[in-house]
Amino acid sequence: MTWKQRTQAPFYVGYLNAVPKPLVVFLTVFALCFIAGLGIAALALSSTQNDPGNGGFQWGNRFEQAGVLELRPYPVFRVPADGDTPARTYMLAGQGKRGVFDAAETNRQKTVSLRGVPISRGDLTMIQVGKVTMSDEQDAGFTPSAPVPLGRWKLTGEICDGKCYAGAMRPGRGLAHKACADLCLTGGTPPVFVSSGPIEGRSFFLMADREGNLLGDEIDPLLALYIEVEGEIEQLDDLMVFRADLTTARVLK
Does residue 50 sit within a domain? Predict the structure, then answer.
C-alpha cells in the first residue's frame, strides 16, 4: 500500500463527529451478527434446561373443606365423596419450608375444617395449610377408605420435595434444586417420587420407606438424581403412596 492509499484509508477520529462509511457498514454487520449469536446461544442453553412445568399457587381458588387428617406417614387430608365427585386425598405442607406434623398430630383422625391455598401441577395438588379448626360438619358416617395395594413395582424417576415440585418453585427438580429440596424435606415437606412412566394414570407418588414410615437421611444421596428403585405401591383415593425399598435404589445417570 502506497503512502497516498494509507492516508486515504477510512479512519475514525472522535472529535470530527464523523464515522467513515466502510466502518459504519462493518460495525452494523458485526452488531447484527453479535446479537444473533447471543440469541442462538440463549436458545441452545435454554433447550438443555428442565421444563419448569405449569405449576403454581392457585391464589384465586382458596381451599376450604371438611375432612379427616391422617398420617400416611406424612400428613394427608381425606375428603369424602360428594355426589359425582369422588373422595380425594391431599398432601399437605406448611408455610415456607415446613410441614404440618403438629396440626396433624393434634387433630389426627378428627373431622376438621382445613383452609389453605392449593399448589397444583398437572394432576398433583398439594395444600399449603393456613388454618385447621374443628368442623361443624361432624359427619361420624365418613370413614376414609383403606389403602388399595397395587403390588411391587420398579420405578425410574426422581425424588423431589412435593411443595416445590407442585409449583411453589419452578422447575422444582434437578441438581440445581437439590439444596432447596433438602431444606424442604428436613422441615417436614412430603417427599414425592416423580416417575418417568404413569401407574393407574398417576406419575407422582407420596413416598415412605418400605415399612410405611417416614423417610430420613437415607434419601440424601439419592435426592434430585435420576434413579431406579423398587417398592410397594398403595392407592389412597386419587393419591398414590410408594413404599420404596431404598436398598434396591440405583443411580442411572
Answer: no
| One domain for residues 123 and 176 | no
- Identify the three-state secondary structure at position 64: strand
The per-residue pLDDT for range 177-226, each reduced to its tens digit, is 899 999 999 999 999 999 999 998 899 999 999 999 999 889 999 998 99
Residues 78 and 86: beta-carbon distance below 8 Å: no
CB 148 within 8 A of CB 235: yes
Task: Tell me, yes or no, whether 120 and 214 share the same domain.
Answer: no
Q: Answer yes or no: do 121 and 160 share one domain.
A: no
Number of domains observed in the structure of the chain? 2
User: pTM of the prediction?
Assistant: 0.79
**192, 143 in Cβ contact below 8 A?**
no
**Separation CA 72–CA 205 (nearest Å):** 12
Write the CA distances from 39 to 35, 44, 45, 48, 52, integer angstroms. Answer: 6, 9, 10, 15, 20
CA 197, CA 204: separation in Å to the nearest integer? 9
β-pairing, 88-93 with 124-134? Answer: parallel
191 neighbors 124 (Cβ within 8 angstroms):
no
pLDDT tens-place string over residues 119-139: 998 888 999 999 998 776 555
Same domain, 183 and 236: yes
Give me the amino acid identity at 18: A
Residue-range definition of the domain harbouring residue 189:
148-251
